[in-house]
Amino acid sequence: MRLFLLTALTMLAFAANSILNRMALEDGTTGPAAFAAIRLASGALCLWLLVAARGGGWRPRLDPAGAGSLALYVLGFSFAYVSLPAGVGALILFGGVQITMFAGALILREAVPVRRWAGAGLAMCGLAWLLWPAGTTAPDPLGAALMAAAALGWGIYSLLGRGATDPLRATAGNFVLATPLGLILFALLPDTVTAQGAVLAILSGAVTSGCGYALWYAVLPALGASRAAVAQLCVPVIAALGGLALLGEGMSLRFILASALVLGGVALAALSGVKKVQKPGKAA
C-alpha cells in the first residue's frame, strides 16, 4: 500500500507539471521563457538542498549532455504550452518519450522483443492520428513540434540517466547546469512574469519537478522497469482531467481515441519486458 501511494503521488506530481505550466501561461501575463527559467532555478535549488541534507557532500554531479537534454525538455515543454491543452501536451510528451527511448534501444543494439515493436508501432499510429491536420481538433503544429522536441530531450535524458549510480545527485547537477541555459534564453527572448506565474513556476520546479523526481527515483527500484512504465500511463489522463476541471479545457473524441492507441501501445511495449516466473523444478 505504501508503494502504491508513493507511486500515485509521483504520477500526480508529473501530471501537475503540465497543469501548472498551462495555468501560468493561460492568460498571457506570464511568458514561457520566464516560467522555464524560474522552474529550472527553483528545481536546482531544491535538489541541491536535498543532496546537502542527505549528507555525503553537497556538490552535485555535473554532466553537460544530461543538462543539455534536460534544458531541451524544460524549454520545449514551456513554450509548447502556450498553445497546447494540458492533456494533449502530456500525451504528445509521453508518447514521444517512449518512441525516443525505443529508438535509443535500437541505436544501442539492444534486443527488442516483437511485442515491443508492436507496441511502439501502435503508439506511433496514435500520435500520428492525433497530430494529423484535420480541422479544429488537430493540435497547433508549432506547439506539437515544440512538445516533440521536449519529448526528445526527456527521452535522451532518461537514456543517459539509466546507468547513474546516484540519480539524485546526478539530477541536481543537471538542474544546476541547465539553469544558465534557461536564463540565457530568457535574456534573448525576455517576457513578463506575474507574481502568480512566479509562484506556479516555483511550485513546478521545486515541488512537482525537484521533489517529484527525487520521489520517483526512490520508488523506481521497488517498481521495476515494466511496472514503472505502465504506471506512467495515467499521467496524460490525469493531466487531461486536471485541464478539464481547473482550466475548462475540452476533451475531444479524437483525443480520447488517440490516447487509447498511444497508451495501449506503451502498455504493450512495457509488458513485453515482464519475465514469466518459472515453476520450481523446471530448468532455466
From TrEMBL:
InterPro entries tied to this protein: AA-Vitamin_Transporters, EamA_dom, EmrE-like
Alphabetically ordered keywords of this record: Membrane, Transmembrane, Transmembrane helix
Main subcellular localisation: membrane
Location(s) in or outside the cell: Membrane
Membrane topology according to the record: Multi-pass membrane protein
Entry superkingdom: Bacteria
SUPFAM superfamilies with a match to the protein in the record: Multidrug resistance efflux transporter EmrE (SSF103481)
UniProt cross-references to Pfam families, sorted A to Z: EamA (PF00892)
Presence of keyword Translocase: no
Domain EamA: residue ranges: 142-269
Residue stretches spanning the membrane: 34-53, 65-82, 88-108, 117-135, 141-160, 172-189, 195-216, 228-247, 253-274
UniProt KW Hydrolase keyword: no
Protein name: DMT family transporter
Organism of this sequence: Seohaeicola saemankumensis
